[in-house]
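Hi W., the zinc ion complex you wanted:
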Amino acid sequence: MITNSLQAFYYLHKFNNIAYWNKDKLINFQNKQLRSIVKYAYDNVPYYHKIFRQNGLNPYDIRDTQDINKIPILRKDIIRAEPEAFLSRQFDSNNLRCLSTSGSTGKPMLIYINSKEDLLRKARHLRANTSCGQKLLDRWVLITSPNHFGTSTKLQRILRFYVPIPVSVFSSVDEQASKIERLNPDVLDGYSSSLVLLAKYVQENDLNTIRPKFVIGGAELVDESSKRVIEDVFNVPFFDQYACVEFDRISWQCTEKVGYHIDSDSLIVQFVDAEGNEVAKGEKGEIVCTSLFNNAMPLIRYAVGDMGVESYEECSCGRKLPLMKVIEGRSDSSLVFPDGRTISPRALTVAINMFSDYNVFDQFQIIQKKIDLFHIFVKLKDVPVKKQFLSRKFVEYLNRTLNLSNNLVTFEIEFVDEIPLRNTGKLMMVISELSKNNGD
Ligand SMILES: [Zn+2]
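Structure:
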């Protein structure tokens, strides 16, 4: 435990140094690490061995970030079709940390990370936060899934260094507000949709007792007007971080907010057109990432499902990590319950992620039809399932997890072969038909 904490601090220190390296030094570092992960993936991960051979590639053909384009883009559906082919033979999955993603389309997928990757992710998270001014002893309150509670080390808890104090994303916004008020955070952090709801609650109830130094949001795209609501209500800056379960933080705002610094010392982030070719800087492209350190489950040229732009600009903060902007991504609606609670879309998808039979779900979508009526489409994997039993268990689970008293709302579960697309053609996980602004 103590070793873990010290290692996390060591990595944080190292990452903070790398952030100021010049471009050539950073690219050399990326290339060296890329060669290492490609060779490792070829030797140990069945999918990469197969895909290299199919494409007539040798791991030594991939020398730098240009050569990486010889490797085909990896889409989520390829992993979902044969997940075991992505795990390194060097690891036993029972000894790995397993993270569940519902991604942008409600399609579940499991991501495995080894302990070094876990430490590196924590250090990168801290680099992003400390770049916004978070200090060692700051009280850091994080609105998150109970899944993430208690992942801090014993030493960290004793010393209270950089340990987030969790507030459940499932709690109602008034419960969250009173807990956060008591915790008196210096840094308020969490899912952006939860922070927007909290800010609106604080505004409506004229609370002026929650006074962080700044607010950090992430894991969801947040529009400019929502950012302004958070900044106006708390009267402090809001810093956004772009992240996903597959890679953790990808890019983040520093105090200058020129763009989002890319974690280029741990990831190669590319922006590609429909054919998978890299677009020029300043042009919009699909975001494709390569993880340089996760040996347990290497992801090379993986399409995250969002659109972004790499920036020409350099940041006045002095960090040389390149800048990007995310311009199109996951966006879902908030839901309202008859007891007056508004619940963030992330709370609902996280709840579904934690359902014990989630592994038989291939895809899902939630639509709020009325204040007390929710329709849930579920596409099941091709496995034997007692649908009626599953449906009843799922409804009971949702009522319990979301603290809904009996018959307050109705969940209609419909098993389908395909999840219907909305008018935009974009697949959304959480849709409210109560509000006009539901993305249609
Ligand atoms: Zn900067």
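DSSP finds eleven helices and 19 strands in the chain.

W.
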